[in-house]
């Protein structure tokens, strides 16, 4: 049986810091985030929750949990390794400004907009 407290190893690769080297503010606004591919090794667990992963990434990069977003997690066949994509924003306001609404709803920052159903 999988142990809930089994050790989990996090590795990040393809780390990109979105910084423009030109000093022309009209050309391209900065996204104010760090983005990376996240490799998770969890040999004695089925998988790791996104909430727990957000906490570990926040601790690793010295940010608050509200600034971190993780998505696109895929577990390899046979388990033990998961790969996904992580974003760490400079501030919670930048997260709210640049993230798509559906991902804000998943994280719990925003609420889902209920639209009335169409009449047929």
UniProtKB/TrEMBL annotation:
Signal peptide stretch: none
GO cellular component: ribonucleoprotein complex; ribosome
Organism domain of life: Eukaryota
The keyword Ribosomal protein belongs to this UniProt entry's keyword annotation: yes
Xref: InterPro entries: eRP_eS24_sf (IPR053709), Ribosomal_eS24 (IPR001976), Ribosomal_eS24_CS (IPR018098), Ribosomal_uL23/eL15/eS24_sf (IPR012678)
Family in the record: Belongs to the eukaryotic ribosomal protein eS24 family.
Protein name from the UniProt record: 40S ribosomal protein S24
Source organism of this protein record: Golovinomyces cichoracearum
Lineage: Eukaryota, Fungi, Dikarya, Ascomycota, Pezizomycotina
